[in-house]
Every structure is written in C-alpha cells, then in structure tokens.
Design goal:
This protein starts with 6 loop residues before the first helix and ends with a helix. It folds into 2 domains: about 5-205 and about 285-310, Aldolase class I (TIM Barrel, Alpha-Beta Barrel); about 210-285, no CATH class. It is about 45% helix and about 15% strand. It is α/β, with parallel strands linked by helices.
Length: about 325
C-alpha cells in the first residue's frame, strides 16, 4: 500500500497517514501545527482546555500552519457544548471524539461539514461508530497510554477484528512508536496510525519537562492499566499509582477510588511535573523512547523506517 495515497490521506487531505493523538496536557498548538506541517495530522487535545483556551489554541494553530489539523474531544467533557460551538464557529475541518457515545454529536458535526472520527476499543463500538455516521475509527489497543478500554484487547488482536467488522477506514493506535510497528498494523488492515506517547517527548509538547524525562527513563513493565472500576487508564508507576493499586487490592469502591483521584491529578503530574503525587498517563512504548526530538524528525524517522522495513521484507 502506498502511504502517499490511501483512504486516510484523502479523507484528511494530508500527505502521510500519521495522526498525532490529542493528548491532555501535551497536545497544544505548537505540537499540532508541527505535526501538520510535517505532513501528518496534528490534533489539539481539548480535554484539558477551558473553552476560551481551546479557541486560543485553534487560532494559534491556524496562524502556524496552512495544513489541515483537528481537535480531539472527549465526549464526557463537562463543557462540551461550548467546545462544539467553538469548533463549528472556527470551521475546524476534523474532529476526533472519544470516551462516550458517538451518536450524541456526530450528526451535528457532520451537518456542519466536519469529518468525524471516533476512538474505539472493540469491534462492537466500531460498528456503533460507523452506524452513527463516523467517517473513520481509531481502534486503540490495550497498550495505549491514558484512558483505555476495559476489554484489554491488544492492538495486534483488535485491528484485524475491527477491520473485518466495519467498511469505514481504520486507524490503528496503541503501542505504535516507530515505522516497524506502523508497517505491522498496516499489514493487519489499518490505513493509518495514531501516535501519542512518542510525541510527548518533543520540544513542542506542552507536557512538563519532568514528565518527559521520566518517560525517557522508563523500562519495560513501568506502565500499568489502573482504575478499572472507574475509567481505566494506563499510568507510569509512581506513588500515586501505588496508592491506587493498594486501594484496588483491598477492594476499594468506585467512590473511594474517585476520592483518592481527586481533582486536577493529571494536570499535577503531566503539566506541573509532580512526578510522585501526579497522574502520569503514557503507553507501553514509553520504554522504547530514549530521546527528545522535534515532531518533524519523528514523523520522518517513522516514514523512513516504514519504507526500509517494507523493502527488506520484499527482498527476503
């Protein structure tokens, strides 16, 4: 398959089918515009933005790229009505939705000429997204950072099942940080990739430097899926994670877990750099990331490795 012309590149009007995930406290206008300028699709992570902040980031992104970019909208966000109004008013061409029912907003967005993609963790949810009118889905495996599916289905298992279940294009996510992994999911039927954790370790990501440094030091097994009774989330192990783990092991209720979580825990960890008391959301690929590089270099490296690996396979 040519990376330069497929259903995903045509749908988004981009050069390469690489999407930068709209991560909270990481994906502001600097990162989104850098990825879009590199030929991928940059996404603003609206889940950590007040409505006026989202508007500011949209306008700064427009000022820094003439390429398409989008907004990731968690459907459980409390100010979602205001976010949707801003997205429509600012004529954002692409919206990725997650963590909720795609039926709620897809028609309204599409009626305003917006391409809608929904993030799913199972074939069933992929079918629901397609039935709701979504233009594509992101099938996100258990390896992914941040909020995750309860099914714990790995990307290797999830992608072919979702591709068989729906006729709309599928973007693979979860456990993808390089060109070899990208080629693997393309072979499974995906037409693009969404990459999150790898783009945290860029100068353009708005995450705190302490968080970036912690990712660079991560080893295999240093992330775990946690808080399955509430909203499952993959975390880098620290004191907060250990506190949650101990509570879960003693059978803590959802209410108690939410009490431990409190408010602003993710901001404290990922944006303010409190490495022990904060929530550090990152994927299993953290153990593969050893350098902070500009987003454009990461895009180029992924593409070069993809092509080199494909050529090697063809010659073998």
């Amino acid at each position: 398959m040519s990376l330069h012309q497929n259903n995903i590149t045509k749908l988004f009007n981009i050069q390469f089918p690489i999407v930068q995930a709209g991560m909270i406290w990481a994906s502001g206008w600097r990162l989104a515009s850098a990825v879009s300028n590199a030929g991928g699709l940059g996404l603003l992570g609206s889940g950590s933005m007040y409505p006026d902040v989202l508007r500011e980031h949209i306008r700064k992104c427009k000022a820094n790229t003439d390429k398409p970019f989008g907004v990731n909208v968690p459907l459980l966000y409390p100010n979602i009505n205001e976010h949707i109004e801003i997205i429509i008013a600012e004529k954002i061409p692409i919206v990725f939705t997650s963590a909720g029912n795609p039926k709620t907003w897809t028609k309204i967005l599409k009626d305003n000429g917006i391409i809608v993609v929904h993030v799913v963790s199972s074939s069933l949810f992929a079918q629901k997204a397609a039935a709701a009118g979504c233009d594509a889905v992101v099938a996100e495996g258990f390896e992914a950072g941040g909020h995750n599916g309860r099914e714990e289905t790995t990307t290797l298992v999830l992608i072919p099942q979702v591709c068989d279940a729906v006729s709309i294009p599928v973007i693979a996510a979860g456990g993808i940080a390089n060109g070899r992994q990208m080629l693997a999911v393309i072979a499974l039927g995906a037409e693009g990739v969404q990459i999150g954790s790898r783009f945290i370790c860029t100068p353009e990501a708005s995450s705190h430097q302490h968080f970036k440094d912690a990712i660079l030091k991560a080893n295999e097994g240093d992330t775990m899926l946690s808080m399955k009774k509430t909203v499952p989330v993959r975390l880098l192990k620290n004191n907060f994670y250990e506190e949650i783990k101990a509570a879960e092991n003693r059978g803590a209720s959802e209410e108690e877990l939410n009490q431990i979580l409190g408010r602003g825990r993710a901001k404290k960890g990922m944006f303010e750099g409190e490495l022990e008391s904060g929530e550090l959301e990152v994927g299993q690929v953290a153990s593969m990331i050893r350098e902070i590089k500009p987003a454009s270099e990461i895009v180029r490296e992924i593409l070069d490795e993809y092509e080199a690996t494909k050529l090697k396979l063809l010659q073998s």
